[in-house]
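Human: I'm a chemist; would you kindly supply sequence and C-alpha cells for a protein?

Assistant:
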Amino acid sequence: MDEDNNFSTATSEPTLQEQVKEHKVAKSKLFGTFDGVFTPTLLTILGVIMYLREGWIVGNAGLLGAGFIILLSCGITFLTGLSLSSITTNIRIGAGGAFSIISQSLGLEVGGSIGIPLYLAQALAVAMYIFGFRTGWQWIFPDHPAILVDLGAFAALFIIAYISASLAFRIQYVILAITVASLISIFWTLYSVPAQQPITWWGTFSGSPENMFTGIGFWALFAVFFPAATGIMAGANMSGELKNPRGSIPVGTMSAIVLGTIIYLLLAYWLIRSATPDELVNNYTIMIERAAWTPIVVAGLLGATFSSALSSIVGAPRILQALGDSSILPKSKWFSIRTQSGEPRNSIIFTGAIVLIALMLRNLNAIAPLITMFFLLTYAMINVVVFIEQSLNLVSFRPLFRIPLAVSFLGAAGCLFVMFTVNSTFSLVAVVVVVSIHSVLLRKHLKAPFGDVRSGLFVALAEWAAKRVNEITVSRERAWTANLLVPIEDPQELRGMFNLIRDISYPKGFIKILGLTGKVDEMELYSRLPDITRSFQDEGVFSSWTIIDAPSFEENLIAGMEALGGAFFRPNILFLTPPLSKQGEEDIRKIVQKASHIHTGFVIYAAHPKSGLGRHKSINIWIDDKSPDWEISMDLGNMDLAILIGYKLKRKWEASMNLISAVGEEGQKRKAEEYIKTLAELARLPNVNTYALEGDIESIVQKVPQTALNIFTLPYEPDFEFIRRMVELTGSSCLFTLDSGDENALA
C-alpha cells in the first residue's frame, strides 16, 4: 500500500524488501484467519440452499442419497481447497485471489481470461443474492414492493463495502452470530421434542411442486445442491487484505469447508427425523417451521443471503483492482487506484453500477447457470495450476503444505465433471468465453512483474518430445521444417535478406542468428541482434541469437555449427551469401564439408544488384540432368531442399512455379518431360509449368520465363564463378541449395 500519497500511483514494481516493509507497516490494518477467511467462507457456504432446499433434497433422495450428494459436492470443494492451500503456501499471493494464483503460475493471459469472467460472475452473484434476500424478506413482509426491497438491500451493501472492508467484516460477525443461533434453534428440537419419524434411507426421487412431482434424477438434485458447497474463494479473494495469506487461506478455508460439511450432514439427519419425505418435498420452509424458535431461523435465512452478497460485493472489486494493476482492462490505471487505507473505491463504484444494472433486469435466471460455470471453471484452474506445478517437479515449487498429485487431478476432474453434469450448454459457453478472452489478451503482449511456470511447462514438454523422438529409429523426413542458421558479421547485411529468410522459415521453422565477431564492434552485435530476432518474431517466426568469438570467419562459423549440432532443436540449413574474395571461397568450401558431415543443408543466396527479389510473381526451380535413364525414385539426389524451399516460397508469395531441366544428351527431351511431370505430381506441387530444353544451363537460361528467383542445386564442391554467371544471365536473384540428407520432397 502507498503510505505517502492518497492514491497508489506507483509506476514500477516495488522490490521484495520494499514489499516486506510495506506489509509489516500495514499489518495492523489487515485481517487475520478468522475474520478475513473463515467467517466469509463459512457464511458463503451456509447460504440460502441450506435453509430452503436441503429439506427438499433429503425428502427426494433419503438420508443415504442426500448424504452422498453432500459428500460428493463438499468433497470436490475439499479437494479444491487442498489445492488452494498448497499453492498459497508456495507463492506470494497478491490481490485478486484466484486471479493472482493463476497468473503467477500460467501467466497474465490465462489469469486474465479466468479473472474477468470470475469478476463478472462475482458481481452478478450480488444481484442474485439480493433477489434471494428479497424472497426471505417478503416471506415476513409480503406487502413490501420487490423493487424497493432490492434497492434497499443494494444500498446497504454498497455503503458498507464503500466505507471499508473492515466494516463489512464486523457486520459479518453479527450475521455469524445469527447463523449460529439459527442452527442452535434447529438442532434444539432434537432434545426438546423426541424424533418421531423413521429414517428413510433411500428416497423415491418424486420431484418438486413445480414439476407436479413427475420425478427427478439424482444428478438433477446434485445440480441443485452443489452451489451450496461453493464459495470457498471468499477468503482468497481478500488475499491482498490479509496479514498472512499463506497461513490464513489454508487454515481458514479448509476449516470452513470441513465445518460446513459437518453441518450439512447433521441437518440432513435432523430433517429426515423431523418430517416425512412428503412433507420435506412439499414444503420448502420446513426447516423454519420445525425449528424451536422460528424468528431466529428467518433472521438466519436473511443473514445468509445478505452475508453472501456482502462477501461478493467486497471481493469482486478486489479482483477488478488486481486486473487493473496488471493492465489487463481498458482504463486499467483508473481501476487500480486505491485509497490510503487500501480501499479500491473506483472498482467498488464500477461494481456497484454493474449490480444496479443487473437488479434493473429483474431476473437473472437465464444466466444464473453461467455464473456457476465461471466459479467452477475457476476452481478447476486452481487444481490444474497445482497439478502442473507438481508434475513439473521444479525446484521453485516447494509449498509448505504438500498434497498428493492425485488430489489436484481429482479436484480438476471433479470440477469439470460437475460443470457438464449441471449444464453442458452453459459449460461450453463458459469455456468459449474464457478462450476468447485469452486470445484477445495474447495480442496485448502483457508484461508481468513476476515469472511463471509456462517456460518450465514448455521445456518439460519439449524434453518429453525429444526423448520420445530419439527413441524412434525411423526417418524424420515428414517432420522436416526449415530451421535456418544465419551467420552475421555485420547486422546491416540482413537488410536485403530479411523477407526471404522469414519466408523460407515461415510458419513452422525457426531462425538462429549467429553473431560473428570481427567486422563490427562486439557491443554492436549485442545491442542489434535482440532487435533483429524480435523483428522476426513479430513476423510470426520464432528466432533467437547467440554470439561466437573466434579469430576468423571460418573458425567462428564452424564453432557455432558444432556447438549447435548437438541440440535437439538444431538448425538444419546454413544460410550464406557468396564470398567476395578467393580466401572467402576457400573458407566456404571448408564450411560446406563441415555442414555435410553434421547433416546440415546449405543455401547460398546471391542477390541481383538491381532487381533484388522483384515482385514475387514466379519462381524457377532447375532440375538436375538425369540422363540417360531419367528414372524417378525416392532418392532425388540433391534436389529435395531446392524443391521444398521453392514450394514454401510459392505458397508464401502466392507465386507461379516453373520446373526446368537442361537436357545434355540429344533424344532425351521426352524422357525429361515425363520425369519432370511425374516429379511435380509425386511432390504434390500444384499448378506448375514444366520445361525440358536441350542444351546446357547457360545456353537455355534466357529461353525460360523471367522470374523473381531462380533456384539451383549446389554441388559438394561449389563453383562460385557459375554462381556469379547465373545471377548475370538470369537477370534475377538466385538461390543455390545443397541437401543435408534429412529432407525428402516426396515424403
Observations:
- Residues 477-482+551-738 form a domain with the Rossmann fold fold (CATH 3.40.50.12370).
- Residues 1-13, 20-28 have pLDDT under 50 and may be disordered.
- The first helix runs from residue 16 to 26.
